[in-house]
Amino acid sequence: MKMLTSIAWHSLVSRKKTVILTFLSLWISIMVLLSVEHIRLQAKESFNRTISGVDLIVGAPSGQLNLLLYSVFRMGSPTNNIQFDSLTMLQNHALVEWAIPISLGDSHRGFRVMGTNESYFQHFKYGNKQALTFSQGEAFENMFDAVLGADVAEQLGYKLNDKIVIAHGIGHTSFTNHDQAPFVIKGILSRTGTPVDKTVHVSLNAIEAIHLPPNALQALLEQPESYNVKPESITAIMLGLKNKFATFTVQRELNNYQQDRLMAVLPGVAMAELWTLMGSVENLLRAIAALVLIASLFGLATMLLASMNERQKEIAVLRVLGAGPATILSLILLESFILVLLSLVAAVGGVSLILFGLQGWLAAEFGLFLTPHLLSIDTLLVSGLIVIVALIVSFYPGIEAYKSALHSQLNDG
User: Fold this and answer.
1) From CA 311, how far away is CA 71, in angstroms rounded?
2) Helix locations, 223-278, DSSP H
3) Is residue 272 included in any domain, yes or no?
4) Average pLDDT rounded to a whole number, residues 191-207
5) How many domains does the chain have?
6) Looking at the structure, do residues 171 and 98 belong to the same domain, yes or no?
7) In the structure, what pLDDT confidence band is assigned to residue 287 with cuts at 50, 70 and 90?
8) Greatest CA span in the chain, whole angstroms?
9) What is the pLDDT of the chain when averaged over all its residues?
10) Which three-class secondary structure state does DSSP give residue 183?
11) Are residues 247 and 299 in the same domain?
12) Where is the domain boundary, 241, 265, 289?
């Protein structure tokens, strides 16, 4: 076997121009396939890590996908709000460690505005349980302070202490601007690659205040300390529980809560359901990558077939040295195996190197938390399938070589 491997290697080296072109074709196509497969698996995990550490999301009954979309991804609109007293109840609940209120319904130049409180900056996490950090400034302290996501500040060119006006509704154009009470930018969050980057954060009290009648709002602005603005309702609540095993107990309790119409969903379950809706796109990417690989493998077979005429003398020499038809067939398949194996190793190394270099950028820009380590069960299965398909495709040139050797043997006989 060692001698046969040596012969196969020297045979490839002797045809280095065509072999290098075939190698490059295989290398690129295998990189595409491995990248698509790796990104597909990692993207699913990244998608599920848009929020991290949240045990339950509570909102008005509207279906778990709708609740997930508007509370986490800032997409769509809530069908109804829940009472502010429900937040107070949850903050005092024996099994609740923290509660993050969310109030939606306003916007600023196409970006969603979210009302919340200090719990958001303390407890909200994304990715691998990464906490929110500030690239500039700090969390809001006064009622009309605002904290911007990274995309909002970058795209609109805002800096600290700039003033912004919030508009009613979620469209890019609004005919109702709350220009009587402008907000002062107090902080800008570091980039996360999540919907946080596209959100303007303000206090719950401010959301309630800007919707007061003009006279009441003017009085509030003149004497803010004399007014106690308390929201009557909010959009949703994110919960972190003291005991993870109590998740289903709390969920059932909230779904049956009599004082308010509540629905509690598990973010992971809702994320999984949402991801299944993207299954067709996922399969399309895999199919395209597979077709690219198959085209390259047929290129490998074409290269081997085209070399058959040139290798008649080589096969004749091997026959003189005692190599049988089966040995010639094994030689062709071994050449194919070596070429594909080298392409695989180079592809794994190339994809790992690219991901290592782009890891931080992909996380910040697209929220894709991709590991550069490709060695996994899935990668091994895909690699094994590539080798098997390559050997199958190379079998026809091998049979041609076998027939040539057999014909030579018959003539010698």
Assistant:
1) 67
2) 247-255, 267-276
3) no
4) 91
5) 2
6) yes
7) confident
8) 112
9) 83
10) strand
11) no
12) 265
